[in-house]
Write a structure and sequence with these properties.
single chain; alpha+beta; Arc Repressor Mutant, subunit A; three-stranded antiparallel sheet; 5 strands
Length: about 90
């Protein structure tokens, strides 16, 4: 599974918290585009005071949606096995 992506000579670390300015530079998008993504909920972020903080895994999810799809598929397979095991009890 993809753990990081190199953007603008910097790695996006899934466990790092980024400001909106850092996020814009990593994604190479404008301020208005980032605001639109935040407003539509395409990037999940936490608001601290009047500023947003974005977890690196959110940026990775945005640029690699196939990774999220694989993770969901894997999770559902494991969940199905667990449910089947529990139902046998």
């Amino acid at each position: 599974m993809l753990n990081h992506v190199i953007a603008m000579d910097k790695e996006i670390n899934p466990n790092t918290v980024y400001t909106t300015t850092e996020s814009r530079k990593l994604l190479k998008i404008s301020e208005s585009t980032l605001k639109r993504l935040l407003k539509k909920g395409l990037i999940r972020a936490n608001k601290i005071g009047r500023q947003y903080r974005i977890l690196g895994k959110e940026l990775l999810r945005l640029v690699s949606p196939e990774v999220e799809k694989r993770a969901i598929k894997s999770y559902l397979q494991v969940k199905k096995k667990v449910v089947n095991t529990i139902n046998k009890w």
